[in-house]
What we know:
Oligomer: heterodimer
Shape of chain B: globular
Number of strands of chain A: 19
Largest interface: A-B, 24 and 20 residues
Number of domains of chain B: 1
Largest sheet of chain B: none
Strand content of chain B: under 5%
Amino acid sequence: xTDEPGAPFVQLRGISKSFGAVRALAGVDLAxxxxxxxxxxxxxxxxxxxxxxxxxxxxxxxxxxxxxxxxEVGHGYGVRRASALGVRCVFQELSLCPNLSSEENARVxxxxxxxPGWRRRARRLIGDALAAIFPGHGIxxxxxxxxxxxxxxxxxxxxxxxxxxxxxxxxxILDEPTASLDATEADQLLRYTAEARAxxxxxxxxxxxxxxxxxxxDEIVVMRDGQVAGKEEAGRLDEARLVEMMGVVRGAEPAHGxxxxxxxxxxxxxxxxxxxxxxxxxxxxxxxxxxxxxxxHGQRALLQxxxxxAGHRRAALRVAGSVAYVSxxxxxxxxxxxxxxxxxxxxxxxxxxxxxxxxSPAREKAEAEAWRTxxxxxxxxxxxxxxxxxxxxxxxxxxxxAFAAEADIILFDDPLRGVDVGTKRELYQQVRRAAEAGRAxxxxxxxxxxxxNCDRVYVFYRGTITDEIDHAALTEERVIRASxxxxxxxxF
Amino acid sequence: MLRVGxxxxxxxxxxxxxxxxxxxxxxxxxxxxxxxxxxxxxxxAMAQMAVIAVGDIDLGIGPFISLVxxxxxxxxxxxxxxxxxxxAALIAAYAAMGAxxxxxxxxSIVVTLGASFVWLGLALLVLPSPGGAPPAWLPALLAWxxxxxxxxxxxxVLLAALGEFLLMHTSYGVVLRGIGGNPRAIARAGWSLLAGxxxxxxxxxxxxIVAGLALTGLNTAGDATVGTQYTLISIAAVIVGGxxxxxxxxxxxxxxxxxxxxxxxxxxxxxxxxxTDWQLSVQGGILIVVLGLRALNRWSAA
Lengths: 492, 302
């Protein structure tokens, strides 16, 4: 190979990337040497996934230099080039075709698996890789992967990243590869990475299980707010130190913290306690309860369960009162893009605004105007199409819709993601005011800074709640510790 | 296996019923008469399958077959070179349609529906009133009696085998089906979705042209509305044969079996002395019943 001995296989320097107003990466440096496993850790929004996409060639950085295998790769760096240089990536969301078999999925990533006998070669390739990494895997490589269990699919995808045809594998990016594997399989994979490293393959490893990282990585890079917050040999770190590095020591934030002495009202949501879920969720009128943790660990499932349970009698989850849902994914499940600001505001409230079953445009207009003033939605006219608004103002309209529906319980599904700071501040105040008026909030957020607006916070890890934190006891360190499942805080 | 097995059993049952009622259909000549009109149908169904494989749908295949029929009954006989050139242009138009759908992210249902009116208009321009005559070789080809098996049977087996080989067994066929399953994964692996979709649409166009030629050879005349029914038949054939509207799940063998089922449903009605006016309703009904049963199956599995 052309690279000099001892040089890193990949070197990223000063990588920056912004999505609109949100700065995902701000000048990140990362180097991975052959035969080494570097683990990148950080909380939500730290920039891990963006960095991995840039490394794998699926996303182009705004600025910065990428050097792979001794080549300075510039604008032409894409998936094909990355793959030609030996970079492989197992993406967090599965990137297999469910209608194809494992061997056919192997064929998709290997242009050279063509011509007569390709299927036999593909079968051997993926079969050997599976057998090497997950001995006794029991996967039929001829079945469509859509028919396999989720863990098996992840095994196929991981094994596929280690298969070689014409080009050797030099670097494998494993983004949460153990998320759907059981303990034995996860252990098999981690042991295999050691074997791969012995053959000079570099590995970048992302996981939410800190013991896995501490036990197997050579080097740990901690990311925070789109920057590298620290870099250390794995042997010189422990869980406490790692959690500390991931957290941010923020100054005392907003002036309007929750009023701790405020009387709490009737119980709105009550979850039955189970042996495997020792911290049941409760929500009272007038309360703002935050749902924290890494994205995708069960927070949204809880919101959905509450939404579904409203108006039904369920033993596991009792919900008393009406429910409104504010989605953070406004484009697919929030706005009606062809409608005006006004219609988007009042759609949840039409029954109350209608007269004898007929719409009343005058009353709708008055209602929408009232909400525009109250939430300071910046539009010259509520008759304007909603898509003419900025993203933050569109999100305000969705919040206004939920408020206007006069629901007892408002479910926030990370609605302020990607919204500018000014809008956030205004909405925090509105939430506080609505809570004082007796509304109850369940608020899932991926931004830990938002949790200071909550009276209480539940932290999720792998589908269960690992900690319940009162406003007064809330620290980011405690949230992060619980998000990585590192032991419950001892009650005192 | 169940995907193709179930339609195959249904087809066998239909054939059994027909043979029981009309034993003379079980001869070489009887089968030829019974199955003749499956020839355009299997090619129309194969065209539809190529489009459904990427999760799209083609509502224009019927009028497209009419257009081919009109060209074959006029231009192909009078100016053969011009006729073949126009067929080549039609295949290119199909590929361009696929490219347009991909590049502009348009819903295929709208684009192909729009195209169907273009095909119909062109067909009327080429042949304003039914008539014309195909070149002599075309009816002769359709009347050919190969040894052992009648032509429609032979053509069905060959087409199913060819389709199965190209889409299910070649390495590029895997990529094409993958587009229907998870386009992002295919794009991330470095394949061109544009090329894939255009290739499948071109294949659909080519199959549509063969379907039109076969229909012309059987009818020995042109008619700008003769192909309309093939839109429904082709979609139903793919689905009844075990394919799915989304997800890149299609089977060429099943599609040919599905086309037979749709056609024989009509023959079965006439043997039962039911007016063939019911044919379209029965064909549509079969499609709805199959989709309904499949949904039921999914519920019970979930």
